[in-house]
């Protein structure tokens, strides 16, 4: 069974998607839909911004959405009969790309929501400043206990991403994250890596942004049809069968952990054998290899990688 993956903020690179845009009409169509839905020119975001400006939350999220959906549409149009995607998952903002590609959202509606989400999260980072760090070499349970202890001292910090065995991301106030990082190293963490983001995403510091996003999501148009790919939610790591559940899940996602490790394990349990990442850097492919090494992975970021993926899929026994 074949699944699609869409990366989150941090995967962006200047110039991403340009080769797809210049090569395939499907990519140009997606960019036009993103422009229509968001009122922002995705070509400028993806092709013209330098790294520091592209890294800004309101720019990175919409750019990744545009490239992820475009890459998916380009591959989808070239897959042979019987090689449809049966499952999808996106990491953080990547969940919106998964929903658009599954048919649960139109590309335009997804772009509208991602634009608002990015603006709200950027503003939250100003109003309630915080930070994020990756903790490598320490697993989830001891790190969660450590974060709870630090938070009980009045310095907020939580696990924001359960990415893979020995790879977690913590998020919260600068003081809370600093304390938790120091204590993590004391109990065996191998390395702490600063994450260059503008706020404490997936933590209680996003409560106000989540509440505002919830109001917007309740006006959004979610839909489902028989045969659509199943989407695994970040918040539950499980398939969502009812379109009406998505507004609450996406609201909660802003202030809760991304359960990526469990999502991949659940996809494997449900029969997924190959996962294709749509976007730059192959971040999610690397995580999958740490979570479930037996799963096959491919990625699509440009025309060359698209052709490689098509060739790999044609040689395999992967079907829906």
Overview of this protein structure:
The protein has 14 helices and nine strands. The protein has two domains: 236 residues, Malonyl-Coenzyme A Acyl Carrier Protein, domain 2; 69 residues, Alpha-Beta Plaits. It has a five-stranded parallel β-sheet, with helices on both faces. Strands 4-5-3-6 form a four-stranded antiparallel β-sheet. Helices cover 49% and strands 14% of the residues. By secondary structure, the chain is α/β, with parallel strands linked by helices. Helix 2 runs antiparallel to helix 5, helix 5 packs parallel to helix 6 and helix 7 runs antiparallel to helix 10. The chain is globular and about 55 Å long. The mean pLDDT is 95.
Write a brief caption for the model:
The chain is an alpha/beta fold and 320 residues long. The protein has 14 helices and nine strands. Helix 5 runs antiparallel to helix 7 (107-127) and helix 7 (107-127) runs antiparallel to helix 10.
Secondary-structure topology with pairs:
Elements: E1 2-6, H1 18-23, H2 25-38, H3 42-48, H4 51-54, H5 57-76, E2 87-90, H6 94-102, H7 107-127, E3 131-136, H8 140-152, E4 157-164, E5 167-172, H9 174-186, E6 191-195, H10 207-217, E7 230-231, H11 246-253, H12 260-269, E8 274-278, H13 283-291, E9 296-300, H14 303-315
Parallel strand pairs: 1-2, 1-8, 2-7, 8-9
Antiparallel strand pairs: 3-5, 3-6, 4-5
